[in-house]
Amino acid sequence: MTLLICAFAAIIATVKWYKDAPEGNMKLGILCWMYWGASIMWLVDAIFEYAELKAEYFTPAPADMLNDAFLGLAVVALGLIIWLVWLLIKDPRGVVKAALIRKKA
Amino acid sequence: MACFLVPATEAVVATVVRKVMEKTQDHGETVKVRLDNGRTEVAEKLPFARKLKWLTNLLWGGSALLAFEHVWHGEVVPWFPFLTAMGDPADKAEMLHEMSTVGVTMAVLITVVWLGMVAASSIIEKRALEPRPVKG
Asked: Nearest Cβ partner of B102 from A35, A36, A44?
């Protein structure tokens, strides 16, 4: 479930990045890298788990599934927070800078 | 248990290599491109250090989110020795086994994906730089 949620987040972020490219200045690339990196790593985790549990892997207990879904959503939220902090620090559109520095008339 | 430490270690090594490369190799290879209208323009190929950044981004991003998962499961704690498995010899052995199997496979798969991206980008660059026959 965590892998699925993260993979969907990676796909959505990549589609948005592609749609906005090349002018896109929202630093969406960082989201794509984070979610794809984690998705690949969780894929490996899933393969090892499948090798151990076989078909049972696809029928998790509802409580486990809920916990994994909750974790997946938390991971997506953490990724978004990291991206947001990065965006505000880099400030590619100069919005933060403009808000902080008042121009004299 | 601590599988993310293997790709995180690779991320540290790749970042150091990238930083050194960025200092020594300042620009990508410059090539002349002949456009369809007969004009020629100078273009710059993507430097390898930039491509290496793709790998470090994947490794750092993935490791950060996986570290969070380990905190979620109580396998990583904010106090020494930071890994709960370190407290018990049996857990420690299991952790090392997981790092050497799952962790190494994670690092290898990320690197394979990156190599695929580098190969694909090289083909795209090559195609873009190939002189096309001028029509008319």
From this structure: A44
Phi, psi for residue B30 in degrees, rounded to 5: -95, 135
Rounded to an integer, what distance in angstroms lies between the CA atom of residue B41 and that of residue B76?
54
Of B115, B113, B101, nearest in space to B6 by CA? B101
Of B57, B101, B113, the CB nearest to A40: B113
Task: Identify from B65, B98, B102, B112 which residue to disrupt to test chain A contact, counting A C-beta atoms within 10 A and taking the largest count.
Answer: B65
Contact indicator for A35, B62 with CB cutoff of 8 Å: no
The per-residue pLDDT for B63 is 96
- A-chain residues near B63 (CB < 8 A): 37, 41
Residues B27, B98: Cα–Cα separation, whole Å: 41
pLDDT in tens, B66-96: 999 999 999 999 988 899 998 889 999 999 9
Taking the C-alpha atoms of residue B82 and residue B73, their distance in angstroms, rounded to an integer, is 13
Tell me how far apart the alpha carbons of residues B73 and B130 are, in angstroms, rounded to a whole number: 52
pLDDT tens-digit readout, A57-80: 999 999 999 999 999 999 999 999
Q: Residue B109: which pLDDT band, with cuts at 50, 70 and 90?
A: very high
**How far apart, in whole angstroms, are the C-alpha atoms of residue A70 and residue B9?**
28
* A44 contacts B102 by C-beta, under 8 angstroms: yes
Helical residues (DSSP H) of chain B, grouped into ranges: 5-24, 48-72, 89-98, 104-129
Closest CA to A8 of A39, A33, A34: A39
From the list B40, B41, B54, the residue with the least C-alpha distance to B115 is: B54
